[in-house]
Amino acid sequence: MSASGFLALLLVLLSSGRLLASGTGNFSTQPGVGLAGPTSLAMMSESSDECDRVMNYSAAERCAFVKRTPDCSMEDGFINYLRLAFCLLAPNLTPLTITLCMVWLLVLFLILGLTASKFFCPNLSAISSTLHCSHNVAGVTFLALGNGAPDIFSAMAAISHPHTAGLAVGALFGAGIFVTTVVAGSVALVKPFAVASRPFLRDVIFYMIAVFWTFDILYRGTITMGETLGYLFLYVVYVLTVVISSFIYNWQKNSATNGIQHVPHIPELNSSDSSDDDDVPGMRGGTIQQEYESEYRPLLPYSESTSEILLSSLNPVDNRKWRRKPWTWKVVKVVKTPLEVLLLLCVPVVDPDKEDRNWRRPLNSLHMITAPLLCVLIFQSGAYGGVMIQGEFPVWLLILLLGMFLAAIVFCTTTNDHPPKYHPLFAFLGFVVSAVLISAAASEVVSLLHMLGVVLSLSNTVLGLTLLAWGNSIGDLFSDITIARQGYPRMAIAACFGGIIFNMLFGVGLGCLMQMYETHSSAQFESEGLLTWILPGALGLSLVLSFLIVPLTQFHLGRSYGVFLLVFYCIFLLIALLTEFRIIHT
């Protein structure tokens, strides 16, 4: 089943379970009757300003409640989905509203995935290459940021407001449990292997510390500026630990090699003491890619015109790959192509693995116009798009004129064949634009999930641990399984534990800083009952069990361990849903 069908089926099951739990089998479309039964506006307390209570009102009174309730303002998104659901569309169209929102949610997840994989990560790789970072530092900083961008920006958007913090809690803990059980278990089932002992224990210990610290924050319901900075500093300590341990390991390895130079070197690919795997698929893939391109290189020199370069640069479909791919890949590619073309038009990409570093003179000149203009129009949900300078001159028009001036300079001072010396600066521009775009899409996802939670009477936490967590993690599942099948299960399991540490520490830490900046006080977390404590408890328990079981098995992850992790996740999800539907309660 595809990811889109899986998410749609999940939402149907959640809504059905909620309706059955509340004693009704369908959405009521009669005026004056809601999911919780008929309730008059006058019967409700005037102090009830929680937007989640809108379903307690009659269908005719919900629009007025949404308009007068500050909690329903949803200022962070381009669209006020609550007004769309309760004011613009008729009450009998609620199923259609949910269907359209699910389609839009899948589009947003597609934007997040495409922007992160095709633009954000390559530009980060180019920046890392430009700054001459080592592989270890790049892996735990730039690579972690690139892989976790959707999770981090979604968490930041949710935690920036206390009433949606449950989405971030559910997403971060839900994704953590999903990745460390389902993804890690699937890797163990596909390719049993011996895990690297020291990196595994290091990552699990740091992740347990992060989980315990987050649990303490949720228990107290608040976090100060000093604690937030300490929370972020924990990841700095983690990075230093990775770098220092890698340095010590390499020093010991070199010393041992120098001491026995007369003995032929035999690489121990399955040794559990190796700190980091050097056999990276991307490295061999680069050689394969070069051979592939050289095979199709024209025999006679040929120079494309400027217009041909522009059209080929905006074409995301490789005709040679198209002929070799199955029909399912072709269908998905057709769906993604319009979005990819728009992204190619607005976001520059620098590829250090290519000979010309992906220099496209006409397109890169056009990026000087489209990239800054896109940032202004979507930054903070378009807050600066309508700003006027002295009440007369719009900011977007000023950015447009400056961009046209810079585009003319770039086009007139460069050639089609050779990238300019300042071409690496386009990687920084692409990084900024893709980060702003991911942040905007993440804000829309949070606002949309909040509306779905209100309409279906589901808590933010359960939406976070299901839809948001699965939407952001389903790509990790497929990519890690693919890496394991290619013979690199260690890399896949390292990605399971290393990336989510970064997501949790920076997602919560930066989100708290944003909330403090907006409220000028300590960050607050609103607890959503028993489910809030089940999440960190389940994640902490899975980490403790892995910390105990894996060393007992001599760090060999077999199929029995994979089955155990999958069963653990199924039990956790069952308990979480039973708690959400009030079958399990305090």
UniProtKB/TrEMBL annotation:
Subcellular location: Membrane
InterPro entries xref list: CaCA_antiporter, NaCa_Exmemb, NCX_ion-bd_dom_sf
Main subcellular location of this protein, as a coarse class: membrane
Stretches assigned to the Sodium/calcium exchanger membrane region domain: 103-242, 427-577
GO molecular function: calcium:sodium antiporter activity
Short name of any one Pfam family annotated for the protein: Na_Ca_ex
Signal peptide residue numbers: 1-21
GO terms under biological process: calcium export from the mitochondrion; intracellular calcium ion homeostasis
Record Gene3D superfamilies: NCX, central ion-binding region (1.20.1420.30)
Transmembrane region(s): 96-116, 137-159, 165-188, 200-219, 231-251, 366-387, 393-413, 425-442, 448-470, 491-517, 529-550, 562-584
Keyword line: Antiport, Calcium, Calcium transport, Ion transport, Membrane, Signal, Transmembrane, Transmembrane helix, Transport
Membrane topology value: Multi-pass membrane protein
Keyword field contains Iron-sulfur: no
GO cellular component term, pick one: membrane
Protein name: Solute carrier family 8 member B1
Lineage per the UniProt record: Eukaryota, Metazoa, Chordata, Craniata, Vertebrata
